[in-house]
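Two entries, shown back to back:
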Amino acid sequence: MKELRNFKNTGKKAGLDVNDPKFNEAMSKYGGMGEDQLIDQLLASVRTSRANGTYNPEQMKSYVAMLRPHISDKQYEKLSNIINIINSENV
């Protein structure tokens, strides 16, 4: 997923704090992953959150909205579809 690998550069243009330790931690953890690996990580995180009662579908939708300006239309559509499936089913 080229766009995620280059997100640090586009993030600067978008006014994100790329010096934020959480941002850098996320980029080091997820920046080198392919799309399938990222989806697997997302699903694992959702399973864990549901199991401990902390999953919030509205918060997930707000994350997608926050990412919207930083991803392509194709990526947004794919991510939105994944989130809709996650929010409508037990994953």
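entry 2 starts here
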Amino acid sequence: MASGYTSVPGPAGIIPPPATAREIVAVSFTPAGAQIAEVWLEESNPETPRRHMRANGADGETMTQLENLLRSSRVGVHFVFSGPQADIYTARARAIDNGAIDAEITLLESVVGNLHVYCAHCKETTSTGNGIGATVRCGGCARQLVVYHHFSRRTSSYLGFMANAEEVS
């Protein structure tokens, strides 16, 4: 299976900022993500208020800060998540869970980076540098999982299922 084949929506490139946003909140992950966000913010309407939150990754503390931002936001706020794929989709999922809609979110992917793999057997998520079609040992049940090309935007993870599950042991 080709590693370029996946159900994750590809990054749209640097799409123009919305002209009518009430405020723009950029959340960037890694220095590369921050640089992409800065370029995007520079192209936005200079009269639109903006904030830029920088983080190393979509860890618990960063996601708590994002949730606080989301809870205090009003209609018309546009969110920009930039950085590695796993981080921006984790942030997108958290934003959707807290009331944002896709029209209020722009994703700017810097690199694919580590993949999150959801185990179909024990429901744990494991992070790996292995690509689609490779295998990874599940951090929950220790099964060898095939990293399948199906991507869930809700869980921000690729599907993992037991390698050679059909073989008789």
